[in-house]
Amino acid sequence: YLFIASSQNAFSFNLQNFNEIWSIYPFQTPYPFFCNLFSDINMDYLYIVFGDGRIHAYNKYGQIVNSIYSIDQEWFGEIYVDNSFIVSEVFSNLLTRFIVVYYKTSGVENHRIQIDGEIAKILKKEDEIFMVAINHQNNAKIYCYDLYNNIIWKENEIDNCQIYDAIIVNELLYIATNLG
User: Nearest Cα to 85, choosing from 145, 36, 134?
Assistant: First the structure.
């Protein structure tokens, strides 16, 4: 199926005949209703991050199969869904941001670590190591995050640069930036 979403509407279509399978219609909000999404290919679930502090996992029929809720006055940003965990950016304002790890099935917070800047992308590098691309004060920074030990270290920094997206292919990190 094909899933198409804007900041306020979301639709899922059958690729053979383009009939609508399911959709999500928002209510009026002062913030973007849909903030992010992640496709879990192993489980065939689509994780959608909502602007009001929710993450819902949908199956291909549009049924909610899992939900995670942030604590009061916190919201989700970028996410990565792993085998047993969801690694997420969580923020309460522009300055207070964390990498937070949740148990995937229960939604209970495992641990968190504070970061400086907004996460552009979270990618899995190895079994317990994640690459985190962060934009902070007009600089792009690439960090490694150890999931089990809850530690983070800087790998590289690019001055006067903003990261828009990133992908790992054949153990090489490719980034899309405002520099090209």
Answer: 145
